[in-house]
Amino acid sequence: METTTFIRPLNGTRADDDAVAGSKAANLGELLNAGIPVPPGFAITIDAFRAFLAGAQLADVLPRHLTGLNVDDPERLAAVSTRVRKLITSAAVPKALEAEFRQAYAELGAPIVAVRPSVFATTTEAAIAGQLTSHLNVQGADAALQAVKACWASLYDERSLFFRAHQQIDHLSVAVGVLVQQMVPADISGIMFTADPVSNDLNHMVIEAALGQGEAVLTGTVTPDMYSLDKASGAIQERSIARQHWQLSSSPAGSASSSARQAVGEAEGARQKLTDKQILALASLGRQIEDHFGWPQDIEWVLQGGDFQIVQTKPVSGLGGAQGVPWGPRKELTGKLLVSGVPASPGFATGAVRILLDPAQARDVQPGDILVTAGSHPDFLVAMKRASAVVTDTGGRTSHAAIVGRELGIPCIVGAESASKLLHDGQIVTVDGTWGRVLEGAVQLKSAKTQRQRAAIKTRTGVLVNLAEPGLAEAVSKRDVDGVGLLRAEFMMTDLGEHPRHALNSGRREVWIEQLAEQIERFCAAFTPRSVLYRTSDFNTKEYRSLTGGQEYEGEEENPMLGYRGAARYLNDPEAFIMEIEALKRARRKYANLSVMVPFVRTTRELQEVKRLLSNHGLRRSKTFELWMMAEVPSNVLLLD
User: Fold this and answer.
1) Mean pLDDT score, 165-182
2) Which strands, in side-by-side order, build the sheet including 531-535?
3) Is 26 helix (H, G, I), strand (E, B) or coil?
4) Which residue from 31, 186, 384, 439 has the least number of CB within 10 angstroms?
5) Does this model's pTM top 0.70?
């Protein structure tokens, strides 16, 4: 299978191809090349999606539907989402793309495939689980091509539009690749975290396993087994065996649905899903993957015929924990126990119960309510953003509700069995997400130690955090830290979605500057008077090409990591860099705790010229404004004196 503009074979894709093929495909291609068992497949590139929009003339049509959309109007949101998705799924795919797709599909030789979205991970879109739609057990090239269009269309479903609007992401700036992969008929499947996502313990691994396809685990519609292991020794330290009444299996050819529920016998559903030997083998595979990427991984796996296959891996999100994690023991919160389940996101919350059994009822959830539901669903995202805590009857620590709960920093309990029947609307309860308990009434903490209010630890050197995501600024600022030692510009610019030169030449200079200034101010406001050190933009050409208008202004480089970036870029295109300087100046007018660090400086002349640019446009070193240089190039050491 050849690499083309629109198609990337999985075995020809590596981790640094994420801006081309999306992070899901890039990470799996990296594993495949490292000898990790991964089902074969191919990626439809992000450029293919853009070519589809252009060929169908949707790039001109979508702005009319999406610009100024009020996502807090449920009826209007549903109408626009339905209209836009229909435009995409009914549009014709460009002939060149279709020909390449059909050839790649034929060469794959798989009668049944999985078609899954592959998002470029620097976009905030990738941060929330379950945003986009996957299609499993797809049979035939025609059905697979339609599934690709459905993946593209899911960029504009209600939950995605709602999420992006509240994250201030331009709907027209997002794009997605698609991964087409041989479907593995799973006997058992699940999730593996190579660091515990609830306790944030890097020394422990968590595996969840259920019979059948993993979709039921991801959506939280079944409660999986949970196994906890010590990472160093491999010892299994804890087992929680869940009774499984049904499993998700592939439907026979010709069925209306790709998957079907299949009853599980009493003895089969009650047994430990993986043997101890299988648990240890899977954990060993997880350690290999973590070692390869150098960071704890969130891994989706399947077991078929005694062999494990990896179908997704990504960095564990949310390490560091939600606010409100208690330092005191369990006895700090006592009361009448109403319901218990699996702790999935730590913290405490008190509020009125709101039973939600249908996503259409999401608007009934009011700010501060305790959302109680039979099983998590991605369409509950709107309700979860309003709720102060979430409790589900089914699901495990890796279900959609659990992951989103940790992302949002709200307490979450899953696998609480009959919570939606035992609790009732309007009932005042206290949710203890740390220990997996729902207590009657408004329970007060016995000690002020809970809520992370212990005495600050004094260190000889300051403890500074690295940040990039504006939505985390407020939460991280409440921790025992001395400031921000590295504020990366790249996530903020990705959220803006537009190449600075494109904004400049399109008459949007002022809008671009103001939006960037507002994002920087969020960090400064959260940490003031503590210092915030902003690293000026360090995108390479490949990353800049992924922004709106980027293709027009960025060339192709054989090794973008060592190419046109950092200080050299500022000096070659000072007009674009001056826009960034202007945003920094506006933020400093409100917050004096902001300083600047310049990345990728190759020579002393480059540093001198960048300093001159900053100074000439109003950013001069002073008692409150520091100028740093990031030492990351060998020449920095050689030229240090």
Assistant:
1) 86
2) 464-467, 483-488, 531-535, 594-598, 627-629
3) helix
4) 439
5) no
Instruction: Say what the alpha-carbon torsion angle 417, 419, 420, 424 is, to the nearest 10 degrees.
Output: 160
Query: What does each C-alpha distance from 123 to 88, 120, 543, 549 come to in angstroms?
Result: 22, 6, 11, 16
pLDDT given at position 256: 43
Q: Tell me which residue has tokens 């929680």.
A: 240
pLDDT at 601: 95
φ/ψ of 70, rounded to 5, equals: -90, 100
Owner of token pair 């307490």: 411
DSSP assignment, residue 498? B
Please give the structure tokens belonging to residue 37: 């068992």
| Per-residue pLDDT at 333 exceeds 90 | no
| Residue 193, token pair as written in the block | 């975290």
Taking CA atoms, 268 is separated from 214, 277, 373, in Å, by: 17, 18, 27
400 flagged as catalytic = yes
How many C-beta atoms surround the C-beta of residue 441 within 10 A? 13
Angstrom distance (rounded) from CA 545 to CA 355: 46
Name 235's Cβ contacts closer than 8 Å, sequence gap at least 6: 229
Percent of residues in the chain assigned helix, strand, coil, to nearest 5:
40, 20, 40
* Active-site residue, selected from the candidate residues 171, 400, 499, 502: 400
Decide if 367 contacts 356 (C-beta within 8 A). no
Residue 406 has pLDDT above 90, yes or no: no
Position 445 scores a pLDDT of 65
- Give tens-digit pLDDT for 198-230: 777 888 999 999 999 988 888 788 999 999 999
Residue type, 166: H
Q: Which of 174, 163, 150 is nearest to 69 (CA)?
A: 163
Q: pLDDT tens across 501-525, in order?
A: 999 999 999 999 999 999 999 999 9
The whole-chain average pLDDT of the chain stands at: 87
Question: What does the block give as tokens for 397?
Answer: 């620590």
Q: What b/e readout covers 342-378, taking b as 16+ CB neighbours within 10 angstroms?
A: bbbbbbbbbbebbbbeebeebeebeeebbbbbbbbbb
Q: How far apart are alpha carbons 434 and 412 in whole angstroms? A: 8
E-only strand ranges, 185-296: 188-193, 204-211, 225-230, 236-240, 246-250, 259-263
**Judging by DSSP bridges, how do beta strands 412-414 and 389-392 pair with one another?**
parallel
pLDDT of 571 strictly over 60: yes
pLDDT(118) > 80: yes
Question: Is residue 364's pLDDT more than 70?
Answer: yes
In this prediction, residue 318 carries a pLDDT of 58
Please name which of 574, 585, 558 lies closest in space to residue 612, comparing C-alpha atoms: 574
Q: Which two tokens stand for residue 208?
A: 């969840």
**Pairing state of beta strands 135-139 and 112-118?**
antiparallel
- The answer, yes or no, to whether residue 401 has pLDDT greater than 90, is no
Report residue 135 as tokens.
């299609």
User: What are the tokens at 592?
Assistant: 């004096």
> How confident is the model at residue 160, as a pLDDT?
85
Beta bridge partners of 342: 414
- pLDDT-derived band at 545 (thresholds 50, 70, 90) equals confident
Q: How many CB atoms lie within 10 A of CB 113?
A: 26
116: nearest Cα among 50, 178, 45, 41: 178
